[in-house]
Amino acid sequence: MLGLGLSLTTGGVATPAYVVLAKAFVSRVEADGGTVESFACLKTDMAYLTSNPAAPAGYTVEWSAATVGSSAEFRINLVGGAGYAYTYAVTDSQATEVTGSGVMSGNIQAVVADLSTLVDGQVTLAVYLTGAGGNGNVVTDTANLVGYTGLLDTYSGAAAAYSLRLLDTSYTGSAVRVRRASDNAEQDIAFANNELDTATLETFASGTDAFVTTWYDQSGNGNNAAQATASAQPKIVSSGSTILENGKPCVEFDGNDHMPNGVGTSTPTNVSAFAVRSMSSYPTAYKTLFNYKVFGLTYNSTGGSPYGRAHIFKTSEGVGKSDDYPTTTGQAIDTIINKTNLERNDFAATLALGNTYSDGISGIGSWSGTSQTFVGTIQELVIYESNESANKSGIQTNINDFYSIY
Fold it and tell me: Strand locations in 3-70, DSSP E?
């Protein structure tokens, strides 16, 4: 007679029950035309199952909420559970796992799991208990993971927002549209795990260079920055590899590149801007990271137009500033608050609003057809038509948490 935990004696040799069961299973599978890849693994599984048949009664697990964040709590419930060891695994839709273990201190054990490496969407929790009362079967529960919070989710109301990371979790469009040099074909490149999908980008580039033809506005206002002229398009892929700044994708401007947009067609009384850039050289003349139509600028006027341009990295101009420019050529967060509040912030950057002009063109990068250039990389530019002084610190912290600038 064969039963769990028993042995079958043949010719005076005791054969463990799990071996007999494993061999019988293999025979049945092979008779049906199948194969068993590893008899050793099968024996191990059978040994575990036959030697641990009991399970704690009334044992459940549950997430603390139907929707969880990157730091997510779940509970293990078992009357008399103190002393039981638990092992858990949380799996996302791409089969990526986060695991952990511990010991229950009572009937209810709260556990906090770090899900920051998982993809947003449904996640499945599986828990296994072991202890003096027997080993438990795996018990599961599911939740919706929303582990990522974009800058605009917290600091909304931007007039325009360009970035190679997802800034608003409600935004469903692409990050950029690119052109490859080999045949001038174009393709939209979306986000993957809340960042630019560099795998798709590099597959499309196919070993050649790629340039940004459109940098999509994530604010919801449709102020996309677009450039149809190939010679004025900034580069994003070089010889098949995504251009990086501090380990993250960037858009590279060579001093001739400019991307016009539709920002600033209204007459805002306030303008605040936040940019992630890296300059290649110290400014010796006007350096323009972006141009913006700003209402009511009267200083340094060249004709009294009600519009002006927001110049960044310029010398010898702007509200008492003289030859005031960044002290570093590297990556920095640049900030302008409330239009005329010029500042040298903690990140070695200076911004200045310059002359007023009647043309009113706005855009990212060098001022097209002039000596006002920008040579370097840009990863993010968010513009508000409001005074964001109260949010300045929070916005800068959000940016730095992602880009690790300082």
Answer: 7-10, 13-16, 60-63, 67-68
Question: Encoding tokens for residue 97?
Answer: 């796992």
Of 129, 135, 144, the closest CA to residue 63 belongs to 144
For residue 129, which phi and psi values (nearest 5 degrees)? -110, 145
* Alpha-carbon separation of residue 371 from 120, 255, 365 (angstroms): 45, 9, 12
Structure tokens at 324: 């005031």
> In this prediction, what percent of the chain has a pLDDT beyond 90?
34
Which residues of the chain does CATH 2.60.40.2550 include?
A: 60-145
Q: How many CB atoms are closer than 10 A to CB 205? A: 26
Sign of CA dihedral 203, 177, 331, 288: positive
Contact status, residue 289 vs residue 326, Cβ threshold 8 Å:
no
Q: Where along the chain do the CATH 2.60.120.200 domains lie? A: 151-403
How crowded is residue 192: how many other Cβ atoms within 10 Å of its Cβ?
A: 15
Longest dimension (CA), the chain: 109
Across the range 62-87, mean pLDDT stands at 90
Class of the CATH domain delimited by 151-403: mainly beta
* Encoded tokens for 75: 């509970």
Rounded to an integer, what distance in angstroms lies between the CA atom of residue 245 and that of residue 165?
A: 13
**Above 90 in pLDDT, residue 216?**
yes
- Give the number of other CB atoms < 10 A from CB of residue 119: 18
91, β-bridge pairs: 97, 124
Q: Could you give the 3-state DSSP secondary structure of residue 170?
A: coil
Please state, as a whole number, how many other Cβ atoms lie within 10 Å of the Cβ of residue 367: 21
Q: Residue 256: pLDDT band by 50, 70, 90 thresholds? A: confident
The answer to whether domain 60-145 has CATH 2.60.40.2550 is yes
Between the ranges 220-234, 317-331, 362-376, where is the mean pLDDT highest? 220-234
Give the pair of three-digit tokens for residue 38.
Answer: 């590893």
Please say if the pLDDT value at position 249 is more than 80: yes
CB 318 within 8 Å of CB 311 = yes
